[in-house]
Amino acid sequence: MQAFLQLEDKxxxxxxxxxxxxxxxxxxxxxxxxxxxxxxxxxxxEMTSEGFTIKDELFEELLNDCKRQFEPYQQIFELxxxxxxxxxxxxxxxxxxxxxxxxxxxxxxxxGKTYTAKDIAYEIIFDRQVSGEPMERKKQMEELQNSDQFxxxxxxxxxxYEDFVRGxxxxxxxGSIEYNTEDRVLVKFAQDAIKEKVIYSYDDYDxxxxxxxxMIKENIPYELNNSKYxxxxxxxxxxxxxxxxxHFRKVRFEAIKSTYRELISCQPPLGGGYYMEEDCSKKFMFxxxxxxxxxxxxxxxxxxxxxxxxxxxxxxxxxxxxxxALEYRGEFVESMYEKDGVRxxxxxxxxxxxxxxxxxxRSVGHIDYAIRxxxxxxxxxxxxxxxxxxxxxxxxxLFKEVAxxxxxxxxxxxxxxxxxxxxxxxxxxxxxxxxQDEENLKVRLVYEIIPLLMEYVKDGILIxxxxxxxQALSV
Length: 475
Known about the structure:
The chain is α/β, with parallel strands linked by helices. It has four domains: 100 residues, no CATH class; 170 residues, P-loop containing nucleotide triphosphate hydrolases (Rossmann fold); 96 residues; 88 residues, no CATH class. 44% of the residues lie in helices and 19% in strands. The protein has 19 helices and 17 strands. The strands form six sheets. It has a five-stranded parallel beta sheet. Strands 9-10-11-12 form a four-stranded antiparallel beta sheet. α10 packs across α11. The radius of gyration is 31 Å and the shape is flat. The chain starts with a helix and ends with a helix. The mean pLDDT is 87.
């Protein structure tokens, strides 16, 4: 169904006389048990004494329609298979991120580390699968870029704690210089995540109201939010609510349920004579927030910060005391800078961090053990199968030739690879070869692939007769 929805415009253009005959688009978006949708068209048949008959021209039309359907049918199943592959690839990474809260994608250049980070961020934030169809994925990535729950930054050697966490800013004020402490990227983003409203659901009422009722019964008389109303009794399907002891009336559970649903749907307060119902509903929401039966931190909207080239900065210096906060989410750590009389900083559980790291870059420092322990590392390696999806045999052949500089056919390190390096850390990634057009592939070879390989020779990654083999590469 998801594959059909993502290709819907294209399919409707191919089958212009087709429409949803049974069901609805809404049912496609949110399938229900024992219901189905039929996308097609209606033709007239006749009932005779011999049974059902169809005119010859309509029968021909029916056969042609079956032929026309084959290509869209093929496209839907190809995309479906891609989506299944992506899901199999991304699901373990998402589970790891949910558990650890911060991960680093590591691998050689061109393996799609940032690409993958954006895909994971999209699925985490929107709880929807990234499309395997390029145009649809482009729309999804635009949606991601426009989301307040997503941020992408890039580290560099000069990046500091004052750029990332909290620092001092100087401003002119009436001819004098004024110094103020300001929160930076991470703290601002963390504060947005902390302020995020809890996601309540309709099902919570039926699931948790019995526990709420038990708590009320154990604490009669029970004061509501504003101290004006007090529950002094509990009936079979109502509360006896008193107004400062002067008046009371029965507030029925069904009325509380209706009011709760209106509140979580962001409808305006009922007002009038329904303040008691509203206060009972708000007290129930407060109960949900503080109940040990449900983890509402998990029901907050998720925020994802992607840090590209995370190892290019001096991480211990940039993170400072937040090295502790990464592991102990929700706990305060003390910043070196005070802001508004407070030094505390906290990273909430609904903030996720994805870093990317180029394992071939020797110009940057290694990540020390203290920081490494706070992150989980995921290898993003070159994949020939991804190049094969482009359908360009020349691209596949070129990838295999370049790979021979790093590994032999038997999988052992090539003679042209320095023993100081592992092939997985330096071999060129598939994105350098993702070209369907042969001329474009030649341009990439001359201006991207060969210069990078020559840089490898200069840095001592490739040795012996590597330069001769590099210059012999062709499309």
